[in-house]
Amino acid sequence: MAYIVENDIVVAALTKQLDSLSDNVQVKYRSKVVKYTWPRPHQAADSIPWVQVTLANGETLQTKLLIGADGPNSMVRRELGIPTVKWNYDQSAVVAVLHLSEPTENNVAWQRFLPTGPIAMLPLSDTQSSLVWSTSHRLAEELLELDEESFVDAINSAFWSNENQSELIETAGSLFRSILSAIMPYAGSPRQLPPSVAGIGPKTRVMFPLGMGHASEYIRHRVALIGDAAHRVHPLAGQGANLGFGDVACLTQLLSQAAFTGKDLGAMQHLLEYETDRQRHNLPMMAAIDLMKRLYSTNAAPAVLLRTFGLQTTNMLPALKEQIMAFASK
């Protein structure tokens, strides 16, 4: 379905690619933007034609198109005054690199929904996985304070313990799964067990707050927002980075077409096309993720049964799974 890649590896690969383009790309390390000066949509006598960027060292830069890729607390978005619909989930995510107890064909992403939030183990190699544990702020802080052995025990317990399972739900789920298997004996996939964890990577355990956010506009005159600067989602579906990559792919294609035909890169024509295309994709995905988060935040028996039956049915329908994966990969 996809690949899980550590952030450090992605950054290293991007840095290597940028170094190979040194004749055309200049990277300004240890620089900070202190001011943006915006051009007016309609040229006035006292206005500048392009976006002007002022750095902390006093240097100024000008660009036909400024791309705001500066995260959920985007200064570009804030300085432009673009409204954002957002709310917090009263949760934090604890992340870490996990060392598995033994080498295995580690090609399955595992996720379990606990009363305090979902915990996920994502494969990195035959011996390592990435942890994303979404939980209450209090429990997240406690997890950070645990010694390595206690932290590893907590992870294994979260994946393996039956303490929070309901006998009624388990019985109903097992019966429903048997019925589906009888109707579609060759569909679905065999049940597997998650790998056990033996340790964590040094200095990889950190936490960050979770929330949802969406900019009402992705573009302004000579400006485009991408990634978390335009939208922020809960990590339970693992789609935050994918939405950003989709923004990059879409904007790159449109700017390449504009450059090929000699058009102004900052013109609203193709920027509007970018905004329309990405909002049509991002908003349904964000709504689905938020609905999943709320559906898995309750222990009410009807909701638990609904989500259990829904996942089991989806697992038995390869065509449906392929459609979901195709939409998520856009």
Hey, roughly how much beta strand do the residues contain? Answer: 15-25%
Number of strands: 13
Q: Enumerate the spans where pLDDT stays under 50 for 5 or more consecutive residues.
A: none
> What does the overall shape look like?
globular
Distance between the termini: 13 Å
Order of helices and strands: HEEEEHEEEEHHHEEEEEHHHH
The average pLDDT score comes to 88
Helix content: 40-55%
Largest sheet: 7 strands, antiparallel
Overall SS class: alpha+beta
Q: What is the gyration radius calculated from CA atoms? A: 23 Å
Number of helices: 9
Give a structural overview.
By secondary structure, the protein is of the alpha+beta class. The chain is built from 9 helices and 13 strands. The strands form 3 sheets. Strands 5, 6, 7, 8, 9, 10 and 13 form a 7-stranded antiparallel sheet that branches. A 3-stranded antiparallel sheet has the order 1-2-3, with no helix packed on it. The longest helix has 28 residues. The model has no long low-confidence stretch (mean pLDDT 88).
